[in-house]
Design goal:
mainly alpha, Ferritin, two-stranded parallel ribbon, 3% strand, globular, binds fe (ii) ion
Amino acid sequence: MRKNIPPSSLARDSRFHRRDTEQRMSDRRNTDVEGHVDPEAEDVAERARRRMHGIFVGEIQALEGAGRTAFDFGTDEVPYELKLDMARQCWDEARHCEISVKLAEHMGGELGEYAEFTTLFEAACHEDPVFRLAGVNRALEGLAIDVFTQMREFGEIMGDPILAYCEDFMLADEVTHVRMGSRWLREVTKNDEQRRKDALAFQRVVDGLFNFQGQRGEEDDSPIRLAREFRRLAGFTDDEVDEIAKMSEESRSATSERNSARHAFDASFAGQSSSA
Ligand SMILES: [Fe+2]
Ligand SMILES: [Fe+2]
């Protein structure tokens, strides 16, 4: 079987509409809308369905990514126990796929209703297994911890015990997956400080992309709230969580400066055309 397959080789039927990360980030609608599942919003049902679809395709790619990492590297490159952990993760992610697709239906959604972004699998294609663990298990599954914690709460607020229960169940597994990432990153690089630093830098790049222009934070009304307690259980230090919060804050102020400049420009343009 071929090793290190590219994201374009993922097996999908005609219901799926694939977009890569470059397309995702160049389309402002994606960074704006994916954020907030606000119980008060008029279109809350649509937002929740969109979020659930995103979770579902993330689960498929998490299954595929963990499967590739178990297969792509020999025991001369990674410890056998790391491969066993990846195999266990495949088992969990397969269950999450089933749960998510049923939840999506439960919420009135349909498979293929939204685009599938291949970011997670792209991070799982790195040639260095340690970078995969940093980018996927720590950055993206860390994001899953934030998202599932918030969706569990959303289920409780909306009086939907099925949603709340399922999110709680998946959250427990994601904490385990992030902890696997934290453990193996530490162990595999224990004699290679530079490799660890580089992998953590890759993790920061992925985390930076998924702050959604600063929408991730610790305030109650943050579109995506950092789940500090669960991240701690998963091997994140408080400094690491602080760093994600800080990056997000910087990106939020940069976005708001950009928006003010744009509004000022639009206002002056409107003034010119009305006086013309
Ligand atoms: Fe999962
Ligand atoms: Fe996971």
